């Protein structure tokens, strides 16, 4: 019992008194550990929940493509250029859709691709980073970095708040949490699993959780995870990943 008490005190002291570090350097190191700049100039494809995705990144911008079969429409392809310009093709024919649906489709594509590419993308112009200190999870030391977004170029979801737990030793992104306002809002926590390297790039899946209490703040989701007070919602599994 005495050893447990001293361990708890040590963890609390480490968390409360962690040094102030540069969040930019932490994110840079994590990006380098995962894939560096290998997203540039490559074509990456994968499948997620019965939909096929393609990423093409170049110096002048990027293109995301989502394609799937719809029982009533046929073959559907959404082409998103630089996060904002979405076109929908049905059976290879460009169709006219409202701005409202363009936004919904673009937001859906962006959401999947944002998480798939993490931590790449955390140096976008709209990103603001803040160092939150250190935390010990499962015996490993983590650096906590909060990410918020400027309203300009931050998209309609600029009020979302993310926290990333970067392993101090490996520099890998092992956990992330976020709060969002769309579709009624909510709070989520993800644990990285099934990490694998393909052509020099690291990809990972996630276990998706939510807190039992809606009052839990994003920056304290780590403690909720330690205390097993999160509810598992789903698995985020990216399949058939190919890098060309």
Give a short summary of the structure:
The protein is α+β, with helices and mostly antiparallel strands and 244 residues long. The chain contains four helices and 14 strands.
List keywords for this structure.
single chain, 244 residues, alpha+beta, outer membrane lipoprotein receptor (LolB), chain A, 7-stranded antiparallel β-sheet, 4 helices, 46% strand, globular, disordered N terminus
Report on this model:
There is one protein chain. The protein is α+β, with helices and mostly antiparallel strands. The chain has a single domain (28-243), classed as outer membrane lipoprotein receptor (LolB), chain A. Helix content is 21%, strand content 46%. Strand 1 and strand 2 form a beta hairpin. The longest helix is centred in the middle third of the chain and has 19 residues, at 99-117. The protein is globular and about 55 Å long. Mean pLDDT is 89; it is low at 1-16.
How many β-strand runs? 14
**Structural class based on helices, strands and sheet pairing:** alpha+beta
* Largest beta-sheet details: 7 strands, antiparallel
Strand content: over 45%
Number of domains: 1
CATH architecture: Clam
Strands ordered across the widest β-sheet: 6-5-4-3-2-1-14
Distance between the termini: 55 Å
Overall residue-averaged pLDDT value: 89
Q: Write down the oligomeric state.
A: single chain
Classify the fold: give the CATH topology: outer membrane lipoprotein receptor (LolB), chain A
Q: Residue ranges: pLDDT <50 for 5 or more in a row?
A: 1-16
Question: What order do the SSEs take from the amino end to the carboxyl end, as H and E?
Answer: HHEEEEEEHEEEEEEHEE
For the record, the CATH class is Mainly Beta
Give the helix tally: 4
- What's the gyration radius in Å? 19 Å
């Amino acid at each position: 019992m005495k050893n447990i008490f001293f361990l708890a005190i040590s963890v609390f002291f480490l968390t409360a008194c962690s040094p102030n570090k540069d969040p930019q350097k932490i994110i840079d190191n994590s990006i380098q550990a995962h894939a560096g700049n290998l997203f540039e100039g490559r074509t990456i494809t994968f499948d997620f929940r019965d939909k096929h995705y393609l990423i093409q990144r170049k110096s002048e911008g990027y293109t995301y493509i989502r394609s799937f079969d719809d029982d009533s429409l046929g073959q559907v392809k959404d082409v998103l250029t630089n996060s904002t310009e979405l076109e929908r093709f049905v059976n290879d024919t460009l169709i006219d859709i409202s701005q409202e649906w363009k936004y919904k489709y673009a937001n859906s594509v962006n959401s999947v691709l944002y998480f798939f590419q993490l931590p790449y993308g955390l140096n976008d112009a709209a990103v603001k980073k803040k160092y939150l200190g250190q935390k010990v999870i499962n015996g490993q030391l983590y650096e906590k970095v909060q990410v918020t977004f400027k309203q300009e170029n931050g998209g309609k979801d600029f009020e979302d708040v993310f926290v990333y737990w970067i392993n101090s030793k490996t520099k890998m992104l092992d956990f992330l949490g976020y709060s969002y306002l769309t579709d009624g809002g909510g709070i989520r926590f993800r644990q990285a699993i099934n990490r694998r390297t393909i052509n020099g790039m690291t990809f990972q899946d996630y276990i998706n959780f939510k807190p039992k209490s809606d009052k839990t703040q994003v920056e304290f989701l780590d403690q909720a995870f330690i205390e097993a007070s999160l509810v598992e919602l789903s698995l985020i599994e990216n399949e058939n990943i190919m890098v060309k």
